[in-house]
Write a structure and sequence with these properties.
Elements lengths: L2 E4 L9 H10 L4 E7 L11 H7 L6 E7 L6 H8 L3 E4 L7 H10 L3 E6 L6 H4 L7 E5 L14 H19 L4 E5 L7 H6 L4 E4 L1 H4 L7 H14 L18
Parallel strand pairs: 1-8, 2-3, 3-4, 4-5, 5-6, 6-7, 7-8
């Protein structure tokens, strides 16, 4: 049971409102919003004003991934702009626990993002404040990169830690993967433990004029579910809608 979160980093920015409406109509559970500052990562993308502009176009949640340093000043701005979930990289915060609480204080779900070489030990000390763990399966900064295979082992480890915490506390923490997610590898990514999948070029690379978005989203769900199970959404996918 999975959530699909197409990344608008690969969308046509000249028609962004139309693009986010199209992915919602095609069955997306979230809009993934990549924020890069040309400091923490070598690219510059979009900010709170764009988030505010697309918020009226969709009812599904907006999943904001902050690839910026420092992070705290932007959190209230994105919360006000309509974000439902805000995640950041622990290396970019002086006080990870405080930043997570800041996100939650502004009414959003809070997540930590782990680069391919970032150890998972960061999450052990803040599990009670986490709503999402996001594993980067590429080095952050650019769309269209290939999936790093070692992410699968890291996914299994993260899933084990999340499941152990869930048994002890009853809290639900999503496990998201971002980078190189395609129709032909989503099954092994989900089998390793992911329940939320970011797909950028895989979705937006399919022309929507002939139903491409809807077709590729259906393929992603079917392949993730496997041959013997129906392609259904994850429970809780709608819980972020409408804030």
């Amino acid at each position: 049971m999975i959530r699909l979160a197409p990344s608008i980093l690969s969308a046509d920015f000249a028609r962004l409102g139309e693009e986010v409406r199209a992915i919602e109509a095609a069955g997306a559970d979230l809009v993934h919003f990549d924020v890069m500052d040309n400091h923490y990562v070598p690219n510059l993308t979009i900010g709170p004003l764009v988030c505010e502009a697309i918020r009226p176009h969709v009812k599904i949640g907006i999943d904001v991934h902050l690839m910026v340093e420092p992070v705290d000043a932007l959190i209230p701005l994105f919360a006000k702009a309509g974000a439902n979930l805000i995640s950041f990289h622990p290396e970019a915060s002086r006080h990870v626990d405080r930043t997570l609480q800041l996100i939650r204080d502004h009414g959003c779900k809070a997540g930590l993002v782990f680069n391919p070489a970032t150890p998972l030990e960061w999450m052990d000390h803040v599990m009670d404040r986490l709503d999402l763990v996001l594993l980067m399966s590429v080095n952050p900064g650019f769309g269209g990169q290939k999936f790093i295979p070692s992410t699968l082992d890291k996914l299994r480890t993260a899933r084990q830690r999340i499941d152990t915490h869930a048994k002890e506390t009853g809290r639900d923490i999503w496990l998201e993967v971002d980078g190189g997610v395609k129709v032909d590898n989503i099954a092994e990514i989900v089998a390793a433990g992911a329940d939320t999948l970011v797909a950028g070029s895989a979705v937006f690379g399919a022309p929507d004029a002939d139903g491409g978005y809807r077709n590729v989203m259906r393929q992603l769900r079917e392949n993730a579910a496997g041959p013997s199970r129906p392609p259904v959404r994850a429970r809780g996918a709608a819980s972020l809608s409408g804030r």
